[in-house]
UniProtKB/TrEMBL annotation, chain A:
SUPFAM superfamilies: CheW-like (SSF50341). Pfam families: CheW. GO terms for biological process: chemotaxis; signal transduction. This is Purine-binding chemotaxis protein CheW. It comes from Actinoplanes lutulentus. InterPro entries: CheW-like_dom_sf (IPR036061), CheW-lke_dom (IPR002545). Residues 32-168 form the CheW-like domain.
Automatic annotation (TrEMBL), chain B:
Gene3D superfamilies: 3.40.50.2300, Histidine kinase-like ATPase, C-terminal domain, HPT domain, SH3 Domains. One of its GO terms (biological process) is phosphorelay signal transduction system. The keyword Zinc does not apply. The modification Phosphohistidine is found at H44. Residues 1-105 form the HPt domain. The keyword Iron does not apply. InterPro entries: Bact_Chemotaxis_CheA, CheW-like_dom_sf, CheW-lke_dom, CheY-like_superfamily, HATPase_C_sf, HATPase_dom, His_kinase_dom, HPT_dom_sf. This is histidine kinase. Pfam families: CheW, HATPase_c, Hpt, Response_reg. It comes from the Bacteria. Residues 420-555 form the CheW-like domain. Residues 283-418 form the Histidine kinase domain.
Amino acid sequence: MSGPSVADRVCTLRADFDRSFAEPARTLGAASVELLAIGVGGRPYALRLSQASGVHPDRPVTALPTPVPALLGVAGFAGTVVPVYDLAALLGHPIPERPRWLVLTTGSPPLALAFHQLDHHMQVPITDVVEGSIGDAGPHAYLKGLVRLPDGNRPIVDVPATRALVHQLAGHQPVPEESS
Amino acid sequence: MGRDPLRYFRLEARELVDQISAGVLDLDQRPGPEPVGRLLRAAHTLKGAARVVKQKEIADFAHAFEEILVPYRSGDAPLASEEMRELLRLNDEISAQVVQMEAPQAAEPAPAPAPAPVSESAPSPPPERKTDEPAEIPAPTRASTSDLDELLDAIGEANAQMTPLRDGCGTIERLHRAAEALSDQLRTGTPGAVRAAAVRLAGELGTAGRRFTDAVDQIERELDDVRGKAEGLRLVPAGSIFTTLRRAVRDAADAEGRKVRFESRGGDIRMGVHLLGPVSGAFLHVVRNAVVHGIEPEAQRLGAGKPAEGTITLEVERRGRFAIFRCLDDGRGFDLDALRRTARERGLLGPGTAGDQEMVDLVMHGGISTTTKVTEVSGRGIGMDAVREVAAQLHGEVRVRSTPGEGATVELIIPLTLLSMTGLIVEAGGSSATVPLDAVRGCLRLSAAEAATAASSGRILYDGSAAPFLPLAEVLYTGDTVPDAAGTGAAIVVDCSAGMFAIGVDRLLGTSALVARPLPELAPASAVISSVSVEADGRPRLVLDPEGLAAAVLRGHGPGARSASASTAEPLPVLVVDDSLTTRMLERSILESAGYEVQLAASGEEGLEKARGGGFGLILSDIDMPGIDGFTLVERIRADPKLSTTPCVLVSSRASAADRDRGKAVGADAYVVKGEFDQEDLLAHIRRLVVRS
């Protein structure tokens, strides 16, 4: 290790530091997107953090006798009773294992989706997200885009589309069918 | 806040006025020294309190009120009707004064609409308000001071529990300093001294930690209590509207020259203030109508063999998630002939003969009244319009029944959003649920043998008769693996409009006061669930619906004895997959005699192909088959998005735990061993699993 190289490093660090002030502040979402890498029924998926309003592990779910198989039951969130749907069942590959994680979705009425595994939280450049629907029928309709990650590509679960499916399963029609 | 000298007087005066209003009506119905004494005490207290806060008018009215009553303090002589009227008038004056005293606060922001002047010179009973205004809604409902006191006490208690925490903060500060000193010592001190200091610090930290835990536990309990009490404040007893209605009956009877007694039931049922207000407004019309149109003059009643005094009964009842308000009278019923005539005159009715119920329905749609003259207090079908409006507003419905000569019933059924009740908490099949205690007739402890008999016969002996019986675990089954529970240990006998029945539970966990709320929008549930309550730990607990349970239990007893859960929908066909002809035929006969449609497949391959054709409510498969075996079949079904939710039951002679585990791993919903093959057991699995159309 010689003296000049340390001085060079110091210079570089200082320049970096100064430049960080000169650059415009980066806004979240513009150049990058926040995602949760999750495991659903043993398969890798991603979820946009902006479409979630909370992630909770091991929250007790009260099972509900119901005609809708994907409805696991109800859970309490700050005094509100929220229905919990099994994301794996909604995506068409249910497994017997109980999901451990709940994500509270944005939008109303309240809805929580359950998944099995939280792999990690990440912020990826928007360029790593390939937009576009994957297929247009079946479970694939609830996937929108794909994120390229070092550990492989993950389809992104589209929460609004999934919510629409839940509304349909629950017989909840926010848009009245009056075109008869 | 503290500058309002009338703050407490308002609260007290309101309660006293309520007592006086109810007391006057009691006295009217049942003279005697006891109601007189009570009224005197209330009036006297009011007089004293009013003098203290310089409310001279209220004090004077209260004094005049006392003066009338004093002569009747002893003896059973009833008051003269003039005196009774005067008491009612004074009662109204006092109420008006008290209301007025509260008005300025509410009316302050707007240029106050001149407070209704209370006519001092009213010579006769105060005229009824115009009945043409159905919007005349009294505000009878508010939390009582005792409820508020209890809440304040609970908050105070929770506050007091903060002290140990506050002290604890000091302790933490001290321990922090000790830890810093210890880190200094680590550099300079002798190892022995340092160790001693560290041990001491660890001990003190442990003690502080325990104190914190205790304090937090305590606060948690107190806050839970506060939450319960505050939730309760949103609900008021239905009886709080009775006095207003009773007074309306009294006034209408007085104006019509009838004798009417008022009875009420179900006043303890608590519900939201927002419901009681409109209901009270509408029922004012209903009870007035009942007096004016229903109750006959005395002579006519006696002639018809009825007691001279008419009776109007107001009943409040809770049925599942609905509240029912019912007004019954023992009068003449609707005058259907007069209704028919009026309807014809107005062109509301065709030339054909309208049935009785059709006429009653016509009344429901408004525009017809049976009274021949427009009386002061009622008429023009306004009553029914008001009830209908309220029903629409509260998403309820109205039912009217009339028996000529015997009386009429008007029933308003409204769904409840929040409901306070006492629940019996039970555990069955590893989960707990609440049964509304008011529907519970009794509890029986069952030995293992009794439980087995009850389950196989579907009946249980209670009070000399055999009540239909069904284990609750079967009703509540949700597809979860049920932990090894002790099995049915008690039966709860429930009574509802469909009759008496019993449900089997593993054990009773106790009773608890709770506030039930509707299930969330996106959670469609079986009819056995009426609502949900939130426990202290934030976890939802299901509240069972006695009527829904009854339907489930009785359905289990119907011909074909079908599923207890889900709905009345028909089960989809069952696919039986087995390479043995004997087994196929045996299973088919069992299933068909239980009312299921059955299709057969002789191999795993055939089974998979048939399953893919769709439409099965359940697949029942053998394990050992040539080619695709049962495990593989279930695995393939689970992997197919279209079939993945179809329930699968494996039937095999393999009894080992490893095989059961494997069955579970591939996704089978149940595993039945052929060796211990029990027809009932198999059917129970199928009943709870099968998908219905």
